[in-house]
Amino acid sequence: MNNKTILSEANKAVAQGDYETFLTYCTEDTRWVFVGDRIVEGKAALRQYMNEVYHEPPVFSVDTLIEDGDYVTATGEISLKDANGNEEHFDYCDNWRFENGKMAALKAFVIKK
Question: Membrane-spanning regions, if any (predicted)?
Answer without folding.
Answer: none
